[in-house]
C-alpha cells in the first residue's frame, strides 16, 4: 500500500461530535494593531482554550489571516449545542464584548485515527 492510501484508511468517520468555530475580532487588522487591553484579553482567551485543549477536547484552534483580515478558527469535540455554547460563552474574548464567535456542528467529520 502507498503511504497516502494507508493514511486515508487510518481515518475514522464520525458524526455529530465536532463543532467548528469562527472568532470574529473587532476589526480586520486586529492581529496587527491590538491595544494593550486587547492583548491582555487575548492572553486570557488563549489560556482559556489551552485549558480546554489539555482536557483533550480541541482538534485544532488558532489564528488565521486571509484576504478578509485576521480571525480565529477552531474545531472542538462536543456532545451538543448547549455544551458547546457554554464553552463559547465562557471565552474571555466573548465575555469582554471585544469579539464575537460563530459556531456550528460539522455534519460529518473525518479525523485521523489515534496512532
Can you describe this structure?
The protein has 115 residues and is of the alpha+beta class. 37% of the residues lie in helices and 34% in strands. The protein is globular, with a radius of gyration of 16 Å.
SSE layout and pairings?
Layout: H1 3-9, E1 11-14, E2 18-24, H2 30-33, H3 36-54, E3 58-66, E4 69-77, H4 81-89, H5 92-95, E5 100-105, E6 109-112
Antiparallel strand pairs: 1-6, 2-4, 2-5, 3-4
Number of strands: 6
Mean pLDDT: 86
As a percent range, the share of helical residues equals: 25-40%
Describe the oligomeric state of these chains in a short phrase: single chain
User: What percentage of the residues does DSSP assign to strands (E)?
Assistant: 25-35%
Total of helices? 5
Largest beta-sheet details = 4 strands, antiparallel
The best one-word shape is globular
- Strand arrangement within the widest β-sheet reads 3-4-2-5
**Helix vs. strand class:** alpha+beta
Give the termini distance in whole angstroms.
Answer: 18 Å
Uncertain stretches:
5-10
Radius of gyration: 16 Å
Please trace the helix and strand order, writing H or E for each element.
HEEHHEEHHEE
Which features does this protein show?
alpha+beta, four-stranded antiparallel sheet, two-stranded antiparallel ribbon
Question: In short, what is this structure?
Answer:
This protein has 115 residues and is α+β, with helices and mostly antiparallel strands. Helix content is 37%, strand content 34%.
Amino acid at each position: 500500500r502507498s503511504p497516502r492510501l494507508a493514511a486515508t484508511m487510518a481515518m475514522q468517520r464520525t458524526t455529530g461530535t465536532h463543532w467548528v468555530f469562527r472568532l470574529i475580532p473587532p476589526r480586520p487588522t486586529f492581529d496587527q494593531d491590538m491595544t494593550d487591553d486587547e492583548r491582555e484579553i487575548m492572553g486570557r482567551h488563549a489560556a482559556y482554550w489551552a485549558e480546554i485543549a489539555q482536557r483533550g477536547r480541541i482538534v485544532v484552534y488558532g489564528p488565521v489571516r486571509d484576504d478578509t483580515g485576521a480571525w480565529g478558527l477552531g474545531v472542538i469535540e462536543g456532545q451538543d449545542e448547549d455544551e458547546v455554547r457554554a464553552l463559547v460563552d465562557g471565552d474571555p474574548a466573548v465575555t469582554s464584548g471585544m469579539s464575537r464567535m460563530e459556531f456550528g456542528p460539522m455534519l460529518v467529520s473525518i479525523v485521523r485515527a489515534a496512532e
